[in-house]
Amino acid sequence: MLMRTKTGGSFNSWTGKLPVITTMAALGLFACAPSETQTTATDDATAQTAVASTSAIPRTPDGKPDLNGIWQVLTTANNNLEPAPPKSAHAMVPGDFVPVPAPQVVAMGAVGAVPASQGVITTNNGYIPYKPEALARRDENRENWLERDPEIKCFMPGVPRATYLPHPFQIFQSNSAFFIAYSFAGAVRNVYLEDPGEAPLDSWMGQSYGYWEGDTFVVEVTGLIDQTWYDRAGNYRSWESKVTERYNMVDRNTIEYSATIEDPQLYTEPWTISMPLYRRLEKDFELPQFKCVEFVEELLFGRFRRGQPLEGMTMPF
Q1: What are the tens digits of pLDDT across the range 177-224?
Q2: Digit-coded pLDDT (tens) for 61-77
Q3: Do the domain assignments include residue 96?
Q4: Segments forming the whole domain that contains residue 295
Q5: Are residues 249 and 53 in contact, defined by beta-carbon separation less than 8 angstroms?
Q6: Domain holding 268: CATH number?
Q7: Which of 193, 178, 151 is nearest to 293 (CA)?
Q8: Which residues pair with 189 in a beta bridge?
Q9: Distance (Å, rounded) from C-alpha 154 to C-alpha 295?
C-alpha cells in the first residue's frame, strides 16, 4: 500500500524528486562556502574603501589636505600627559591621614577635583623619560602647582600644550601661508613655509617651520622659553627643547596629531604624544576669544592695588 501526503501525492512521487532536491542543496552549500573569488572580492572592497576614505579628505587647489577649520581635543592631556588616577585637587597638602586639597582650593569641591588621565604618550611605556635630577624638579613643580603653573597666570601656553588645552583653535591654510590662532590667551603662531634658520630669540610660542611629507604636515618648533609647562602635573621643558609636530588628516573632521619632544638637558631620549583633533561642527561656530589677562589682574597685581610696600616684592613670573 502506498503512503500518501496530505496533498494526495505518493511516496514514489517524493522519491522521484529526491535527486533534484539533493542537487539543489549541494549547489546551495557550494554557493555559501568561502572561495578564493569571494576573498579577492572582499580584499578589493577593503582597498576601495581605503581609497574612498583618502579621496574624501578635503584638499586645497594644490592637492594638499585642507586643514582649515576650528579644532579641539577631547582628552585630559592638559591635566597630565602621563597615566594618572583621579585625585581631589591639583594642589594638595598633608592631612591627618591622607593628603587633602590645599586651603586655596578646598572650597571648589568636585569642581576642583582632577579626573583620571589615560595618558597620551606613545613611547617609553607611556611615561616621560626624565633624568633623575629633572624628575625631582618635576615633582617639586607638582607640589607647588598654584605658584608655578603658567596657565594659572594666563601666560601663553607654548607648544604643544596650546593644542590640547580645553579650548579650541583655528587653522588658516593656503598654498603660501599657515597660521594658527588659539582661543586661550590670544596666542598665535605663524608657521614659516621656508626654513627661517635659527630663532633670533626664545619666546613663549617659539618659532615654527612647516613642510609637507606626503599628506602629513610637519612643523618643527624651536626657540621655546623654559617657563612653559606641558600640563598641570608639573611636566616642564628647558630652553634646549625642540618639538616636531605632525598633522595627519584621517577624514574630513579628524586630524591625527602627534608631537615628538627632544630635550637633552632633561630627558634621556625623545618622547612622543599622540591624540585626535576634532572639527567643531556647530552651525556658524566662531573661534571664541578667551583673553584671560584681565581675569588674573587681581591675582598678579592686586597687592599693588592694596597698597602693599614694594620693598622685597618680586614680579609674579
Answers
A1: 999 999 999 999 999 999 999 999 999 999 999 999 999 999 999 999
A2: 999 999 999 999 999 99
A3: no
A4: 69-82+117-303
A5: no
A6: 2.40.128.20
A7: 151
A8: 180
A9: 8
